[in-house]
Amino acid sequence: xxxxxxxxxxxxxxxxxxxxxxxxxxxxxxxxxxxxxxxxxxxxxxxxxxxxxxxxxxxxxxxxxxxxxxxxxxxxxxxxxxxxxxxxxxxxxxxxxxxxxxxxxxxxxxxxxxxxxxxxxxxxxxxxxxxxxxxxxxxxxxxxxxxxxxxxxxxxxxxxxxxxxxxxxxxxxxxxxxxxxxxxxxxxxxxxxxxx
Length: 196
Fold this sequence. Notes:
Layout: H1 4-23, H2 35-67, H3 72-100, H4 108-134, H5 141-160, H6 164-169, H7 172-179, H8 182-188
Helix pairs in contact: 1-2, 1-5, 2-3, 2-7, 2-8, 3-4, 4-5
């Protein structure tokens, strides 16, 4: 069984980087009141919170698989479900940002459009990773380990990229408004946000 363990560890490490992405949806605190922006932030944060939890749970499932003496079949099943959950979560966050409309800041529309596009793109990438994991050959230990290595490499790229539009969305007043929301505070205070 040793063949898949180091690889799945690499997968877990790459994943924890990706989970931070969503949990970054909070910024520094501010006292400036902007009711429109606050209500936008509340809508987005409330929608993000359960999805951030879903991503964290998926991450934890893969982390757990790395510490267990798991069979390739078990690793495949867990990883595929985790990627599907993450795909759904990013899709839902993209929809939430879309439904909330542009935040009440300069370039709000552009920031919103870019963030939605990015979130939906990440969702598609996780769905593709799920398909890739589904196709892995669990009968052949070496092939399975190699296949997982490819997945881990792509996952690493995915967690590196994909932050830009979200960071731009959260710059300045938007980040400040989001950090005021209880649901964003709770999301960003989670253990996954401190990793990576």
